[in-house]
Amino acid sequence: MIVTGKAALEGTARNAAGPGWTSLRLLVKSDGMGFSMTETQVLPSARLSLHYKHHIEACYCIGGRGQVVESDTGKVHEIYPGVLYAPDAHDRHEVRVPEGTEVLRLICVFSPALQGNEVHGPDGSYAAPE
Rounded to whole angstroms, how far apart are CA atoms 50 and 102? Predict the structure, then answer.
């Protein structure tokens, strides 16, 4: 059984960050679950262009407000506590958090599992799993 707390992971390689976001990797590939789980924060004024070419993800909002924009269609989805979004077809998308609002807090599940220290490449994706 895996039991851990945020305090044990903060400040380790599992505490990844990039421009406009932080992501605490709660479960990673080495945990052997077949998926990973993160607690991700998207900061106010952030506009993250993402395209998970090698992963699928599901994100459940637990705090804050933002938008997910489908890059190919321009369709905008409002994200707030209790809303899940899942770019299930490797959809290119943008996550936006308005300036002057609180941090958007998400619990995200990735398949295949993340190694734990990934950051987004120039195209908005993570590298292909090893």
Answer: 21
Amino acid 128: pLDDT? 72
Q: In 78-110, which positions are buried (b, 16+ CB within 10 angstroms) versus exposed (e)?
A: ebeeeeebebeeebbbbbbbeeeeebbbbebbb
Does residue 129 have a cis bond before it (omega within 30 degrees)? Answer: no
Kindly list the domain boundaries of the chain, sorted by start residue: 15-111
Q: How far is CA 112 from CA 19, 43, 73, in A?
A: 24, 26, 26
Fold assignment, 15-111:
Jelly Rolls (2.60.120)
Question: What's the pLDDT tens digit per position in 30-53?
Answer: 999 999 999 999 999 999 999 888
Q: Name the least confident of 34-38, 49-53, 72-76, 80-84.
A: 49-53
Q: Which residues pair with 104 in a beta bridge?
A: 42
| Cα 48 to Cα 67, 75, 91, 97, 120, distances in angstroms | 11, 16, 14, 9, 10
Extract the tokens encoding 11: 């400040």
